[in-house]
Design brief:
Largest sheet: none
Distance between the termini: 22 Å
Length: about 80
């Protein structure tokens, strides 16, 4: 199981206005370990919180520049 599978399951649930829980994410994925899913969900939630903090604390111009840098890095990868 990868972090991306958990992320996709969480996003699918959220798109249906369902709050993701470990059990619901597991059901959406069709299986997986509760501990592993829970750890992945905590990591994803921490990433989201960090992004929220960046979006609210940085000026719009700096956010735009960071977005361009991220796109350049993604393209290079």
């Amino acid at each position: 199981m990868t972090l991306e599978k958990v992320r996709n399951a969480m996003e699918a649930l959220e798109a249906r206005n369902v709050a993701p829980s470990v059990r619901k994410v597991r059901d959406e994925m069709g299986g997986g370990g509760f501990t592993e899913i829970g750890e992945a969900m905590r990591e994803i939630k921490a990433e989201r919180e960090a992004l929220r903090a960046v979006r609210t604390d940085l000026s719009r111009a700096l956010q735009d520049k960071a977005g361009i840098l991220a796109l350049d890095l993604w393209t290079a990868a």
